Every structure is written in structure tokens, then in C-alpha cells.
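Human: I hope this is not a bother. Would you mind checking the protein record under this note? Thank you for your patience.
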Amino acid sequence: MGPLTFVFQAVCKAVDLCQSRNEIAGIGIIPVLERLSTINATTLRASLAAAFLEVCVKAQAYEYAQRRVGTHWPTAIDTDSINDVVQYFSLRATVHASMQEFSWAIRCAKAAIAVPSQSVSPPQLAILKKAILWSC
């Protein structure tokens, strides 16, 4: 885990201390996180991108997050943890669903569910439940 990851974790903790979503949006951290969350156009830093999306979801900045992820699908994922990948696709699914893009939300949910692991994790079960609702 590199120093950039620690910075992202600290920012996420600071965001948790904000009283409202307006405070989160007002501190200007979302554009900074966005710039740091990708290596290049096709390689995703899963832990950093998940932190970026987490901050956007907490700030209810779905449009901003949606513009960032759009319909781009990463071809390579740089990660230290399978949980980072699950979290990234789960949060991305939440962003797409919030923007009424249910086909993309379901696609991201399927990606989160399909991440290989020893057993199904609670975040995978949670996103599965949401995907079932989105598909109705």
C-alpha cells in the first residue's frame, strides 16, 4: 500500500467528519481525488477509484462521478485487494443507478458479484440485492 493510498484513506475519514454533503462538495476534494484515481485511460487504481466514488456518493455528487466513469470500462486493474475491486464496482453501480442508468448499474453489480474469492462477502450480497431490485 503506497503513500497515495494512505492519503485517500485520510481524506475519506475527513469526509466522514463533514456534517453535510454540501460541506464535502465545498472543500473541493472531489476533483483532486478524481485526478489521482487513474494511472492512465485504461488502468484503474481500484482502491483510489473506490475512495473517489465513495466520497462522491457521500456528497451525493452522482453526476460528477458519472461523468468520470461514464461508459468507460477498465481493461486493467491495479489493486492490492479483491475487496477494493468489489467496492469499486459496487459504488459504481450505485452511481449509475442514481443516474437512472440501470443497465450500467446491473453490469457493474455483476462485475462486483463475479470477483473471485473464498466466499461471498457481505458487500457482494448487498449489491446482489440491489441488482435484483434494479432489474425489476
About this structure: Strands lie at 43-45, 76-78.
